[in-house]
Amino acid sequence: MVVLDGHHLTLEDIKKVAVLGEEVSYSEDSMEKVKQSRKTVEDAVENHEVVYGINTGFGKFSDVEIEREDIDELQLNLIHSHACGVGEPFSEPVTRAMIMLRANALLKGFSGVRPVLIERLIDLLNHQIHPVIPQQGSLGASGDLAPLSHLALALLGDGEVIYQGQKKPASEALHEEKLKPLELKAKEGLALINGTQAMTAVGALAYLEAESILKHSEKIAAMTIEGLEGVIDAFDELIHQARGYQDQIEVAERIRTYLKDSKLTTKQGEKRVQDAYSIRCIPQVLGASWQTLHYVKDKLDIEINAATDNPLIFSEEGKVLSGGNFHGQPIAIAMDLLKIGMSEVANISERRIERLVNPQLNDLPAFLSPQPGLQSGAMIMQYAAASLVSENKTLAHPASVDSIPSSANQEDHVSMGTIGARHASQVIDNVRRVISVEAICALQAVEIRGIEQMAPITKEYYETLREIVPSIKKDRVFSKDIEMMQDWLTQN
After folding, report:
1. Which of 162, 195, 228 marks a domain boundary?
2. Where is the PTM 2,3-didehydroalanine (Ser) found along the chain (predicted)?
3. What crossing angle do the helices spanning 197-227 and 92-106 adopt, rounded to 10°?
C-alpha cells in the first residue's frame, strides 16, 4: 500500500502503483490541510470575492465574472469543453500514474478541493478503473488540460474507461463498483486539470525504463567487447580518474567488473593498439547518458510532489494567488535531455552492431552467418537497428524550444512538455530494440569465440539471454527474436 501525502512520493512508488498495480491510500494529516483550503474556497464564494477559476471564466475569459448560481455549472462546462484530446490513448500504466500524481498534488492542500474528490481519484486506482485518455492535444502549459479533462470525465461518470479488460462507459464501471459519479463544486474542475501530470506520468515511467535499459546496455556492451576481443586497457581506472567525471568512472569500473577474468579480452598491442570509439569510449558516452538521467530524475522527484495548478490557496496566509506553476518547462527540458541522452545509447550500440557483423571490421564469419552467402545471418538486423537510430534522431529534436500562442494570446508561451515526454517514451522503446539487436549479435559472437573463455559475469548473462533467444544455426524470422529480447529487457 502506497500512502500519499503530497510530499514524499517517489519514482519507485509510481512503479509500484502504475506498473505493478499496488493499492493507494492517503495520510490523514494531509487531508486536514485539504479541508482547510476547501474552507477558503467556500468562504470566497460566500463573500462574493472575485477569484480566478472560482467565479470567473478561464484563459482569455478570466475577466468574465460568473454568477453565484452558475459556479458549479462553470466547472462541469470546463471539463466537457476541455476534453479535446485526440489520437491513441495512453497506456494503462501511464493513466494510473496520472491519477496517482493528481491525487498527490491535491493532497498538498493548495487546490481547494473537497476530500471526496481525492478519495474518488484513489477509488479509480484501487478499483482498477482506468479512464481512456487520448495522448495528443496538450500544449504543456495551463497544465495538461486536454488529457486531464479526459481523466476527470471518468469521475463524473462521463467518457470511457478500461475496466476488467474492456472499454466501457465510465458510468457502468462506477455503478459496478458501487461508486457514485462526482458532482463538481467551485474550483474543483480547474483543480483537476490545471497541472503537469500527463507529461510527468509519461516522463516518470520513461525514466524508469531508461534507467533499466542503460544498465542492460553496459552488460551487453561488455559481451560485445568479448565478441570483438576488445582492448581492456581503455577501461583502466587511471584514464577515467584523469578526466574526473564520476559517472564515466563508474561505467568503466562496472565494465572491468563484468569482464574480470575474461580470456576473450586483449591488452593493447596484442591484436591491435586500440579499438574504435564505439568500444573504447563506452564509459565516456554512457557516462554522459547517466549524467543526463540524474538530471531528469532530480526534476521528476520535484515535480511528482509539486503543486502545479492555478490559483493556489494558502489558507494559513489567507491568500489565493494566481501564478504559473502549471507551466511544464522544467519537465519539457528534462524530457528533451532524456531523448538526447538515450538516443546516444542506441547510436553507439548500433555502431558496435556494425563492428560485430561487418567482415571488414573483424575476423568473425560475415554477418555472423552460419553459412555466409547462402544464409544472411544478422545482416538485416543491423539495418533494423540503423533505422531505429535514424528515427530517434528525428524524435530527439527538442520539443521545448517550440511554442505557440493560445487562448487569444493570454497563454502566449507554452512548453510542449507532453510532446517531449511522449517522444522520449518512443525513443526509449527504440533504444530497447537496438540494444536487443546488439545482444543477439554479441551472443552469437562470443559463442563463436568460445563461451568457456568468457568472464564469469558475462557468461552468466549469456546463459540467461540464451534462454530468450537461441543460437543462430539457420536463417529464421529474426523479428521474433528481437521482440522476444526486448520483451525480456522490458520485464527485467
Report:
1. 195
2. 142
3. 130
- Same domain for 217 and 83, yes or no, is no
CA angle 199, 205, 211 (to 5 degrees): 125
Please provide residue 102's backbone torsions phi and psi, each rounded to the nearest 5 degrees. -70, -40
Q: Within this chain, do residues 117 and 164 fall inside the same structural domain, yes or no?
A: yes
- Please list the active-site residues: 52
Say whether both 115 and 236 belong to one domain.
no
Residues 6 or more apart in contact with residue 374 via CB below 8 angstroms: none
C-alpha cell at 276: 574504435
Q: What is the CATH number of the domain that holds 156?
A: 1.10.275.10
Nearest Cα neighbor of 449 from 265, 260, 279 is 265
Domain termination site, one of 166, 195, 224: 195
Residues 341 and 292 sit within 8 Å (Cβ to Cβ): yes
What proportion of the chain, given as a percentage, has pLDDT over 90?
A: 76
Residues sharing a CB contact under 8 Å with residue 491, sequence separation 6 or more, in sequence order: none
| 193-220 mean pLDDT | 96
Are the beta carbons of 59 and 36 closer than 8 angstroms? Answer: no
Largest CA distance in the chain: 86
- Total structural domains within the chain: 2
Tell me: do 122 and 166 sit in the same domain: yes
In this structure, the answer to whether residues 297 and 390 fall within a common structural domain is: yes
Task: Quote the domain boundaries for residue 168.
Answer: 2-195
What confidence tens digit (pLDDT) does each residue in 127-157 have? 999 999 999 888 888 888 899 999 999 999 9
Task: Please give the pLDDT value at position 27.
Answer: 94
